[in-house]
Write a structure and sequence with these properties.
This protein is α+β, with helices and mostly antiparallel strands and 184 residues long. The protein contains 5 helices and 9 strands.
Length: 184
């Protein structure tokens, strides 16, 4: 009897290890939609954070929202959140990720006038650091409001990471905004 219980426990441990290992090796294009679905169903702040960022406009592109931009660059864009430092009431700091896969981004080369920097079939990830205090959401010192510009913390295109002070940061945002879905 004890031998049978021990085998069952070992079997459960092995299956859990396989499931965790499988989750860890899944590519983001598979894992992020599952994670977004799970967060949408289980986290009360998911919709508040994601919907606020989606409704904000892209800096220097006042008619383009982040939601429309991400829909324009990929049919399979995914929004996920990460709790950085959050209390029991849901107040604190969050990181919101917007991911799109198989995107082609062509930005004018900042080093010379002769060409473009092109990323083909790239993974694009835009990150926002957001503070939540009650109903107030802020990025830095600016409150997030529908129709107002919100600046992301960084943009990853393929293996390149562009911070807000990088010369390719705004041109990359402009290129992505140019692919936005027109409002209906």
């Amino acid at each position: 009897m004890a031998n049978k219980v021990f085998r069952i426990i070992i079997g459960i441990v092995i299956l859990a290890g396989i499931a965790i290992g499988g989750w860890m090796v899944l590519p983001g294009s598979v894992k992020n939609p599952i994670l977004a679905w799970y967060q949408e169903k289980t986290d009360d702040n998911y919709a508040v954070l994601v919907d606020s960022v989606k409704a904000a406009t892209v800096p220097k592109n006042k008619k383009v929202t982040f939601g429309a931009m991400m829909e324009g660059v990929s049919e399979d864009s995914t929004w996920t959140i990460e709790k950085m430092s959050v209390d029991d009431a849901g107040n604190g700091s969050y990181r919101v990720y917007a991911d799109a896969y198989k995107v082609t981004v062509a930005v004018e080369n900042a080093l010379n006038d002769d060409g473009m920097v092109t990323h083909t079939n790239a993974h694009v990830r835009i990150m926002f650091d957001i503070s939540k205090e009650g109903d107030k959401l802020t990025i830095g010192r600016k409150e997030i409001e529908e129709g107002k510009a919100a600046s992301p913390m960084q943009i990853e295109v393929g293996e390149y990471v562009y911070g807000a002070s990088d010369q390719y940061f705004q041109p990359t945002l402009d290129c992505l905004a140019g692919m936005a879905v027109a409002p209906e």
